[in-house]
Amino acid sequence: QVQLVESGGGLVQAGGSLRLSCAASERFFSSYGMGWFRRAPGKEREFVAAISRSGTIEYYVDAVKGRFTVSRDTAKNTVYLQMNSLKPEDTAVYYCAAADTAQIATRTYEYDYWGQGTQVTVSS
Questions:
Q1: What is the 3-state secondary structure (H, E, C) of 10-34?
Q2: Which of 1, 44, 85, 99: disulfide with 33, CB 3.0–4.6 Å?
């Protein structure tokens, strides 16, 4: 069982930055591709970014390209989502997830484990 715990959410003004962290169980971290999703009020959960289990491949949804960066630190069993130039439309609950694959996964059904989510609110 992989346990994922997100942190780092909060309230920020438009144009500001936040860094989300997702701490994973040590035993499994290096075996899983990791992803970030978000769910805005009244909307479906959507893919944001993913990083391969090797850490060599990253993938982003178009809406966040050039503003968000996903990374992972194997020594700390943690994946990060650095979010810059935040916009009000980035407001959502952000979830990290783990997928038992060597590939990049972008669909919710490809992920095996999910964190509880952390709220990000961007004010205009």
A1: EEEECCCCEEEEEEECCCCHHHCEE
A2: 99
